[in-house]
Amino acid sequence: MPLKVERAPFKSKLTITINNLKLPIPPMIGLLALFFGEVVLLFSAESARSLGFQILGVIIIVMCFYRMGVLEGRLRELPDLRLGMGKFVNQEEIPENLPTFVLCTGGAKARSLATMLIKLLEQEEPGPKEIIIFHAEEESARRGMMHELLQRVVSQQIAPSFRNHDVVLTVKILPETLVDGLIYLKKAHPFSKVFIGTGSDPDLADRYARDLESNLGVSVVNIGRPTLLERLGSSKQS
After folding, report:
1. Helices (H), 23-144
2. Which listed residue, 13, 25, 149, 172, has the most CB atoms within 10 A of its CB?
3. What is the pLDDT of residue 56?
4. How many domains would you assign to the chain?
5. Given 56, 77, 98, which residue is the final one in a domain?
6. Which segments within 105-183 are labelled E, that is strand?
7. Which position has the higher pLDDT, 180 or 75?
């Protein structure tokens, strides 16, 4: 079982507890100083009052952008889940130079992930390889929610089904759009091919795959498209 990543609630270790509520001390000091300064400005001369509102607005904007940056930084710095299957299971250090492929997923459904992994392994040449299961958290309100969920699904439900394959399963989540996330991932961990799902609109998925190819410079395969054998099988059944 992989080690569960526990994140500290605050970056500062200096905290104070008030009515069972733990608060970091440095931000509390800054908040009190800011509150005192704003009160002085708002209740002094009228000219200073407008200045107080302007300063307050600037501080709120800076705090929002800072908080977004801290959250995205934490997501980038979280360790990836890397599970060795087959001959890599008992190795202390997993090789970093394996042929690498990226499997993009929009969620954490075990059945869908397993099907896409099977299709990927069927399309590629046999042999050791690393498969990065990649999810882009494009919605800022949901950032951080998929990290532990996807790791749990891969480690507990997906990995046991592929224990006889010589593959390394890696889970990577970035707070970016799919294109920007894959560009960032390619710089940090180069890969040779990307696999995406079809979704509800196969034609749209094909166009999206071509756009990704032009941005990434690597082959992008729409893994959800039925293969020729699958089409023949379905036509015989009908």
Report:
1. 25-42, 46-77, 110-123
2. 172
3. 75
4. 2
5. 77
6. 129-136, 167-174
7. 180
In this structure, which amino acid lies at residue 98? L
pLDDT of residue 76: 52
| pLDDT mean over 164-174 | 87
120: in domain: yes
Strand, helix or coil for residue 217: coil
Q: Which residue segment(s) compose the domain that 171 sits in?
A: 81-237
- Cβ atoms 104, 224 nearer than 8 A: no
Q: Is the distance from CB of 170 to CB of 129 less than 8 angstroms?
A: no
Cα–chain center distance at 212: 18
What's the pLDDT band for 79 if we cut at 50, 70, 90? low
Return the SS3 of 120: helix
Mean of pLDDT values over 220-236 = 55
Tokens read off for 95 = 């090789």
Does a structural domain hold residue 154?
yes
The verdict on 22 and 105 lying in the same domain is no
Exposure of 189 in the CB half-sphere (CA atoms within 13 A): 22
171 located within any domain: yes
184/225 same-domain check:
yes
Strands of the chain (E only): list them.
Answer: 15-18, 21-24, 81-84, 100-104, 129-136, 167-174, 193-196, 219-222
pLDDT of residue 187: 83
Say if 7 falls within a structural domain: no
Q: The domain spanning residue 151 has which CATH number?
A: 3.40.50.620
pLDDT > 70: percent of the chain: 76
| Same domain (yes/no): 179, 87 | yes
The total of other beta-carbon atoms located within 10 Å of residue 158's CB is: 21
